[in-house]
Request: fold
Amino acid sequence: MASGPQEGHKGLHEVEKGSTGSGAAKWLSPSLGDLPLKTLLGLALGFGLGLSLLSFWRKDPTSRMPELGAISQVMAGLQGLPQQRAPGETRVFVFGASMSFGLPYQPEGMASWARVLEQGLREVLPGKTITVRPIAQPAVDATQLSKVVSFLLGWNPTHVLFVLGQNEFLNRVAYGEELLPSRIPARVGMLLSDGGRGFFEDLLGRDFLKAKGAGGQAGGFFRSLRKARPGRPAIGGLPVSAADQALLVARSRRALDRCLKACQAGGLPLVVCLAPQSLDGFPPWLSRIGPPPPEAPYGPAKASFATGRRARRAGKAKEALAAFWRALDLDLAPLHQTSALRRMVREWCTTKAVPFLDLSVPLQGRDGIAGPSLFLDYAHVDLEGHRRIARYVAAKLQGRWWPKLPEDWPDRFRERAMAWHRDMITDVSRRTARAHLAKNVGRWMLVFGNFEDALPFLEVAVRGLPEHKDLQADLDFCRRALEKRR
Reply:
């Protein structure tokens, strides 16, 4: 005969009341038992195990970044150079980016301080066969350069100079996404995605395509600038987080390791150089995102930059130097060196016993601060800047890579360097060099939403390059946007 639930077998949702008179539903069905709890635990453990397994196949997050510069073009530095050295020849390869390339002067590569170094040394050491070639290309970073060192050692250099520090954050900025997401769910999703990708890459024995991003096409990248508004970048991934910057600094360290390993395998001396960095004269790329609050219209990076300029004018060099480096470290879009990167390079050179040169030193004023004199922008130097770097390197490496230089060498070196630039560099590129770089700086700032600082650079570019109608359109776009905001 049917009856209610028997004692000891309460229904699925029957409430047991405690002494307080309140109750709670209990999962006590004899058919289910504690299956839900086991299921949840199993799912959690399985998910954790899956994450752990996938972590073995997770690739370096920086490998997802596009490469704005095409590393294959560094071969241009070898034009006219026979693969075999002449007897007794000293052959130096200078690996670097656009500054060592000699951008923006024409013909390409001829303005480079590496070419000037070759000409000056040949003048003051006429009995020696000395070749110095820039193996350089605009918009490449240390990682890209380090991957071609071994191959280019097939052209039999005797010494290697490796210049880094100009573009170590460039590809991350152009990528437009975080490498390490700041939110936990997004970071877990990235781990799953990267681990799965790494698993199938190992399984199939090939790398999948990188994210499209800028894809080596700066022109295509700049087309995005019309999406920007004052205080609102046209791309994502900004600001570049401290976690992402740490990944990129570690990536640069691995590039140095790779370069050193190649040089040691070939028995070649290596000197590591930090590219020049202008501290004064050029404001941060991006100091704030969003509308400016009345109490802090500049943003932290630009405020620190302004503090540095005031301190320098007041003769307080130590205070100015600290403020300028703080401005670089606070920049939300660091297309330049940072204190952490410089510190890593110096410590690496000390640990590995590799000679180190800071190419900003010959460009510094009497107060020990570089810029704006001798610079065309943040990192590119004018012709006199190239000549000073060449003389600095010649002096630092004399008695080690080449014989001790004669007492009268500075004047003879300087005269030959000036004659080289006078004979080789076109008049047009001399006149338009600053305008060409102002064009690039202004467009980058528009992409970042930094319309206030982009404006003067675009004005310089339009005045110097009046035939570039697209520049006038960019300038008009910038002015209209600023007027609307007011």
Observations:
- The chain is about 45% helix and 5% strand.
